[in-house]
Design goal:
Helix content: 10-25%
Distance between the termini: 60 Å
Strand content: 15-25%
Number of strands: 7
Structural class: alpha/beta
Radius of gyration: 19 Å
Shape: elongated
Strand order of the largest sheet: 2-1-3-4
């Protein structure tokens, strides 16, 4: 297929082999591969820093998280979707990687909401499930 210059690191369980195969077929370079992937695909050890990391989602069973340099992530996701014929649901964060976002917190019906502008409001949740107002 392609011949892309991005370096892709693939982590995770049951999808690692399939995603590695797709990435290789698309012409991406697999970096920091597991011994199993190196052996299975007969690729050279390459411990370069990745442009993109693909891993199992920590929140959604059966889902993947793709993160890294914005242009590289967009390229990899677009090409992977082209292969699966856009049969996947994709959520793209409006907040770039490693960014600090400031917002205004308000309380609505006992819920804490943060408004970051641009019509984007999110529900704030604590690990324990509760926040308290400090005056």
């Amino acid at each position: 297929m392609g011949g892309y210059s991005y370096r892709v690191r693939i982590r995770g369980g049951k999808y690692a082999t399939a995603i590695s195969k797709l990435a290789l077929d698309l012409g991406y370079t697999i970096v920091q591969a597991s011994d199993v992937i190196i052996s299975r695909f007969n690729i050279n050890v390459n411990n370069s820093a990745p442009d993109v990391t693909i891993k199992d989602s920590e929140r959604v069973p059966g889902a993947l998280t793709v993160m890294g340099k914005c242009s590289a992530v967009n390229d990899v996701v677009d090409n992977l979707l082209r292969v699966v014929e856009k049969e996947a649901l994709v959520w793209r964060s409006v907040v770039p990687l490693h960014r600090v976002v400031m917002g205004i917190v308000s309380v609505v019906d006992g819920n804490y909401l943060v408004d970051v502008g641009g019509g984007i409001r999110a529900l704030l949740r604590s690990p324990s499930g509760a926040y308290s107002m400090v005056m």
